[in-house]
Amino acid sequence: MAVAQTTEFDIVIAGAGMVGASLACLLADTSLRIALIDRLPLTPASDSLEQLSSDKFDPRVSAISQASQQLFRDIGVWDGIAAKRVCNYQAMEVWDAEGTGSISFSATQIREPELGSIVENSIITTMLHNRIAQLENVTAISPFSIDSFETIADEWGSCVQLNAGEGQSIRAGLVVAADGANSKLRQLAHFECREWDYEQHALVTTVRTEREHLNTARQRFLETGPLAFLPLRVAQNDDDQHFCSIVWSMLPEQAERILALSEAEFNTELSAALEFKLGEIQWSDKRFVFPLRQRHAIDYVKDKI
Ligand SMILES: Cc1cc2nc3c(=O)[nH]c(=O)nc-3n(C[C@H](O)[C@H](O)[C@H](O)COP(=O)(O)OP(=O)(O)OC[C@H]3O[C@@H](n4cnc5c(N)ncnc54)[C@H](O)[C@@H]3O)c2cc1C
Fold first, then answer.
1. Atom number in ligand 1 closest to CA 183
2. CATH number belonging to domain 8-45+133-191
3. For ligand 1, atom 35, which residue shows the shortest CA distance?
4. Cβ neighbours of residue 268 under 8 Å, at least 6 residues apart?
């Protein structure tokens, strides 16, 4: 990783999450001088995933399609991700709780080895940050929390200056706002959004099931929202198929009630919500709840942002 000696760059990418860090890697080996900033310290370049354990999973996972896998291959991080742990899912079953509607997909039908892979977000970002540490033209600057920005006249016309607390600032001809769903830059630059509340919350956690998941992703559509079981793998060379990451979308008052249940009560309710397709839920981790909101910017480009 290059050391920050200058505060002027061609491009500043604000936000080193999966999106910002992937973009920084895609711009590697160009003549562009890139700064990747984040309000949080970037994962240390030393491998911080050594303590991956058989029952401790990141509650945030992503379903990575084959196209996204290819992107990660192109930027040189997929092999590292796959060597940690990914669960390739070969089938998907979706059904309706109210009627008899159901649909299923399988990799063999399309002559592919898998439909996609479930990967913990923290594995993806750590591998991206490790890659960034090797890139000559990318400077990682963190912590840097954007407080304000201004447009400044310069020899090429103008550039954007981002300011953080304590007089820290950074300039670039182009700024990419990859600072997440509640983007500070979007608010500061007055990008308007079309948005509405789904009036649903998503409850996420990891569970251990009685039956094996058979590398199948499952989703049941309940009246109050979909319940997804995404298969996980405990280690690269371990075929234990009993762990799943769940995303259970539900009404806010239901989420409040379910969050307050004991582990045993929650496990019973969740087993029934999936119609015992994977038997009893034997164990569940800490639960997290996120409000679900639809949000699209009306414009995605303004001046140099
Ligand atoms: C329950 C749940 C399940 C989901 N499942 C999926 C899925 O399966 N597939 C999928 O594609 N998406 C999924 N999503 C959405 C997914 O989480 C986001 O699309 C993804 O994390 C966005 O990545 P990002 O890099 O844009 O933002 P983030 O991961 O939010 O990263 C933003 C970065 O910007 C930094 N930052 C924020 N503010 C500032 C600031 N002021 N100054 C400097 N840095 C700042 C943050 O520290 C952070 O590192 C899910 C979301 C939820 C809630």
1. 38
2. 3.50.50.60
3. 15
4. 280, 281
Which CATH superfamily hosts domain 87-118+195-294?
D-Amino Acid Oxidase, subunit A, domain 2 (3.30.9.10)
Protein residue whose Cα sits closest to atom 36 of ligand 1: 179
State how far the alpha carbon of 178 is from the alpha carbons of 37, 38, 257, in Å: 10, 10, 34
Closest residue CA from atom 29 of ligand 1 = 17
Q: In angstroms, how far is CA 136 from the centroid of its own chain?
A: 26
What is the block-wise mean pLDDT of the chain (305 residues), using blocks of 10 residues? 64 98 96 96 67 82 96 97 95 91 96 96 95 96 94 90 90 97 95 95 98 98 96 88 97 97 98 97 97 96 93
The position carrying tokens 């002027």 is: 8
Q: Which atom of ligand 1 is nearest to the CA of 22?
A: 25
Nearest ligand 1 atom to the CA of 121 is 21
